[in-house]
């Protein structure tokens, strides 16, 4: 069947149809290669979510640590002031002054006790934040480990697909060499447009893509597979597939 057809068709048309077949093979492989993208994007998104959670947890550790250091500084300052009050107490002479200092010492002691309690809580918060960060980090590691086999599988499938795609592109280039330059230029230009293919067979007396009628003199030109004509409706190359 295909032998009969090749004999019937003009050699330019045969070369063009072969080229179109190669282009379809390339397009199918490109689609196959791209078909992994959504899954890869999903895997990436899952990791990104865990990573941003980890960044948040680490920030929590840092903030809790800063708070603890801040309280330590404050407590250190209070202690120093208390120490000075105690020293002054040893030297005061008047009873009134001593009573005032004693009252100050008492007050400062209770403030210090509150700050120390606050420091204890801040130390607990650091510990909690560190625990949380460690958990999130472990979850991220687990997610990476869980993804690894599928990622490897996809990488292998893509590598194999890329190999086939490169071979198909090579074949396409070889096949393109058999098409005469002006017609190849036309063909390539149509392919860059928005029709799925550059060439369509006649369907009855109309273009096989947009179904615009092909004028009779044009149909006669290509009758029996003698080359191609442009569709006036959509611009694709129309050919007579013969019978
Ligand atoms: Zn058309």
> Pairing-aware structural class of the strands and helices?
mainly alpha
Large-scale geometry? rod-shaped
CATH architecture tag of the largest domain: Orthogonal Bundle
| Bound compounds | zinc ion
The oligomeric state is single chain
Task: Output the radius of gyration.
Answer: 41 Å
Distance between the termini: 10 Å
- Give the low-pLDDT segments: 1-7
Number of domains: 2
Secondary-structure element sequence? HHHHHEEHEE
CATH topology label of the largest domain: Helix Hairpins
Major sheet summary line: 4 strands, mixed
Strand runs, count: 4
Helical stretch tally:
6
- Assign the CATH class of the largest domain: Mainly Alpha
Order of strands across the main sheet: 2-1-4-3
The helix content is over 70%
Average predicted local confidence, pLDDT: 93
- Strand composition percent: 5-15%
Notes on the protein architecture:
With 243 residues, the chain is mostly helical. The chain has two domains: 2-21 and 180-239, no CATH class; 36-176, Helix Hairpins, CATH 1.10.287. Helices cover 77% and strands 5% of the residues. The protein contains six helices and four strands. The chain has helices at 2-8, 11-34, 37-91, 95-176, 181-192, 216-222; strands at 199-203, 206-207, 228-230, 237-239. A four-stranded mixed β-sheet has the order 2-1-4-3. Helix 2 runs antiparallel to helix 4 (95-176) and helix 3 (37-91) runs antiparallel to helix 4. The longest helix has 82 residues, at 95-176. The termini are close together. The model is unreliable at 1-7 (pLDDT under 50). Zinc ion binds next to loops.
